[in-house]
Amino acid sequence: MASPFIWLQHMLPHHAVSRMAGSLASSEAGAVKNLLIRRFIDAYDVDMSEAARGIDEYRSFNDFFTRELKPGARPLADAGEYILSPADGAISQIGRIEDGKIFQAKGRHFTARQLLGGDEDAARLFEGGTFATVYLSPRDYHRVHMPAAGRLTSATYVPGDLFSVNQVTAENVDGLFARNERLACLFDGPDGCFASVMVGAMIVAGIETVWSGLEETHSPKLKRTDFSGGAHSFEAGDEMGRFILGSTVVLLFEPGRVEWLDGFTPGDSVRMGEALGRRLQPNAGA
């Protein structure tokens, strides 16, 4: 039987709750935003020593939540040899894509095709490849960075629910990361085609990218944007987007491209820029 926490999530109007939270979080009223920020820091033990700005310098709670870090706060591993963690957070799952399936938790799976919004051609590229799911907790730095060098080829907004993405929910909601609202970004680079999928969650008020700004989320329609013209290229470690509250990043790589480093298990903490996997074709370029 589902826990009250899971049951409540099924009953709540996800998008209405998230829009309401987003409206509050975007308020620039000094008393409101300062109270929210200070309460949040205390509740989640946020480390402000690495933030580039002081508590009173943020325009809104959203501005604080997507805060930038001081230069050098996240040194990058050698991108010529390694695949980098795209975010601060915890490993939810990490492994291999088998029979098109990506492991979620406790016997639950979802498919690459589902995750990518029904794109069968893209999903086929990742059959037998590798995946890593990184969960960003409320206290974490919430900007998402490139795990490897690549040129953006497409970005697909996939409508969906907004369940929480913590471990309890992952263990109790089927196909969670392919069920929630998400933005599936595909890149081509020295490590072949790879995907970085930004998955929304309860009270996530938006997903923002460096190439398009704030995405039109909370929409019922799938939207695929073609960027094959090559206008947006990135180096490993470059910022690619951020969550306006919440969430999770799922990485997909083609077979024969990445070998995850030994020792990573679900629940392990990672920081943006640290080595997550070894590139199997390092001479193809960094």
Automatic annotation (TrEMBL):
Modified residues (Pyruvic acid (Ser)): S247
Cofactor note: Binds 1 pyruvoyl group covalently per subunit.
Entry EC no(s): 4.1.1.65
Protein name per the record: Phosphatidylserine decarboxylase proenzyme
Catalytic residues of the enzyme: D88, H145, S247
Organism (species): Qipengyuania nanhaisediminis
Biological process annotations from GO: phosphatidylethanolamine biosynthetic process
Swiss-Prot/TrEMBL keywords: Cell membrane, Decarboxylase, Lipid biosynthesis, Lipid metabolism, Lyase, Membrane, Phospholipid biosynthesis, Phospholipid metabolism, Pyruvate, Zymogen
Pathway: Phospholipid metabolism; phosphatidylethanolamine biosynthesis; phosphatidylethanolamine from CDP-diacylglycerol: step 2/2; Lipid metabolism
Site (Cleavage (non-hydrolytic)): G246, S247
A GO cellular-component term linked to this record: plasma membrane
Binding partners and assembly: Heterodimer of a large membrane-associated beta subunit and a small pyruvoyl-containing alpha subunit.
UniProt-listed InterPro entries: PS_Dcarbxylase, PSD-B, PSD_type1_pro
Maturation and modification: Is synthesized initially as an inactive proenzyme. Formation of the active enzyme involves a self-maturation process in which the active site pyruvoyl group is generated from an internal serine residue via an autocatalytic post-translational modification. Two non-identical subunits are generated from the proenzyme in this reaction, and the pyruvate is formed at the N-terminus of the alpha chain, which is derived from the carboxyl end of the proenzyme.
Top-level EC class: lyase
Domain of life, per lineage: Bacteria
Catalytic activities: a 1,2-diacyl-sn-glycero-3-phospho-L-serine + H(+) = a 1,2-diacyl-sn-glycero-3-phosphoethanolamine + CO2
Membrane-protein topology: Peripheral membrane protein
Pfam family, one: PS_Dcarbxylase
Obligatory cofactor(s): pyruvate
Role: Catalyzes the formation of phosphatidylethanolamine (PtdEtn) from phosphatidylserine (PtdSer).
Family: Belongs to the phosphatidylserine decarboxylase family. PSD-B subfamily. Prokaryotic type I sub-subfamily.
The organism's taxonomic lineage, starting at the top: Bacteria, Pseudomonadati, Pseudomonadota, Alphaproteobacteria, Sphingomonadales
Localization (cell): Cell membrane
GO molecular function, one term: phosphatidylserine decarboxylase activity
